[in-house]
Design a protein that fits this description.
Length: 233
């Protein structure tokens, strides 16, 4: 059984259905990317997976439990983590303080969880005392992902993590996502417009257009052009 199973999912805003008949799954330790142009419905789909939008049809099972009607905070407690678009952090607090806001909730495990997250992005240790608002966009994104990693999620959901980020840090983030899946056994859902970043190291991908999956395939560098072509249709 897959860790996440989505079957026939419809969702939207009020009476307007934006996403239709979505079927996909994610296994533990698997990176699944969802790519599509602006307005395809990518963020709407993520909101439904997180419980931020109601599911009007279909079901969502996570870790063997039906969570279709489960509140967002309960989904997080069950092992979902979400890194939203836009490099979220407390700008007036230091990097160290941003990480401890999450880590200190875990009592005796706080240091171990903190160290695990920082090991993924060593630059955060170097800049521990710097205000988060003074970091580059890429560094703030690394901080956002590290904060989510402290929770030791079973499933990491990332929304457009490369937006406005310099290429060298984009490569570091891609490597970190691959390590999450391979080394830590975390399931990953990545939503992106940048097809090469999303697909070349993913295990599988889906192309979303007008609220529906119109193509899918195995990940890898040789699949990038096929996905781009599907997005142009």
């Amino acid at each position: 059984m897959a860790m996440l199973e989505v079957k026939g999912l419809d969702t939207g805003y009020g009476k307007v259905t934006v996403v239709n008949g979505i079927d996909f799954d994610v296994n533990a330790g698997e990176w699944v990317s969802i790519v599509g142009n602006n307005g395809a419905g990518k963020t709407t789909l993520l909101k439904a997976l997180l419980g931020l939008l109601p599911t009007s049809a279909g079901s969502v099972d996570f870790d063997g439990t039906d969570i279709t009607r489960t509140a967002p905070n309960q989904r997080i407690r069950k092992g979902m983590a979400f890194v939203p678009q836009g490099q979220q952090s407390f700008g007036t607090m230091s990097v160290d303080e941003n990480l401890h806001v999450v880590a200190d909730r875990y009592g005796s495990e706080a240091k171990e969880r903190y160290d695990e997250a920082v090991a993924m992005f060593p630059i955060l240790k170097e800049f521990a005392g710097r205000r988060a608002g003074l970091l580059s966009g890429g560094q703030r994104q690394q901080l956002s992902i590290a904060r989510a990693l402290i929770t030791r999620p079973k499933l990491m959901i990332l929304d457009e993590p490369t937006e406005g980020i310099q290429p060298n840090i984009v490569a570091e983030i891609q490597q970190a996502i691959r390590a999450m899946a391979e080394d830590k056994g975390i399931g990953v859902i990545l939503v992106e417009q940048k097809v090469q970043f999303a697909i070349e190291r993913a295990d599988r991908y889906y192309v979303l257009a007008s609220g529906r999956f119109i193509a899918s395939g195995e990940g890898g560098p040789d699949q990038v052009e096929a996905a781009k072509e599907a997005m142009r249709v």
